[in-house]
Amino acid sequence: MLIAQISDLHIQAGGKLAYGKVDTVAYLRKAVATLNALDPQPDVVLATGDLVERGSAEEYGLLREILSPLKAPLFVVPGNHDARETLRAAFPGQGGTGEFFNYAIDDFPVRLIGYDTTVPRKPIGLVCEARAAWLDQTLAAAGDRPTLIFLHHPPFATGIQYMDAMGLKHAERLAAVVAKYPNVERVVCGHLHRAIQARFAGTIASVCPSTAHQIALDLRDGAPGAFTFEPAGLQLHLWNAGAAMVTHTLATGPAATPIAFPWN
Length: 264
Prior knowledge:
about 260 residues, alpha/beta, Purple Acid Phosphatase, chain A, domain 2, 6-stranded mixed β-sheet, 5-stranded mixed β-sheet, 6 helices, 17 strands, globular
């Protein structure tokens, strides 16, 4: 099974550019074309949050139009820029029916679990006790089937300090659940706009680059926030029965120098 992942699309309506510089719409169209040109084709595409910039219905309408040519089925989870209920309305049948945008997909050789880590109107993520309990029950219900969990906020510190300050709170609750299930092949995330991997709770947590701009890699204490036109990209997670899942990062755009965020 080939699982494609895109993340941090940050679509804006009305021709607006992110930070006045990034044409996220053009970048996403390029990512869709890249995915549709792959051979073999992905079995599924996962989009791990920050799908739009402000969570408006207009933005989600544009997002659906851009993604509509995808050949593979698409499944989404929210990021901190998204709005749960507006996202549910834009992608009916996804996200379950409860307070959180949590759901399981059982139609493929690898079970896929969409997991909502968002806190409305805040950049941080959170694993509350209710969400941890839901994941435990959902993983237990499928025995030892190979499983991939997709969410927005990475469950580990990356060393990019200003982004880690907007990271996942109570990630230890997620770790305690995942550690019980050795059949969890990957925990795949977004939010950091970079390709990053770490050992996590007996598996691997993998962060996908953005389809548009990337967070500048700066590991200094107190480093200011900056983004870069370092290659836009996506990830491909390849699973074969009896073998380890393998993750590939595929660039879809050119490189450039870091640009300071306007609030610095």
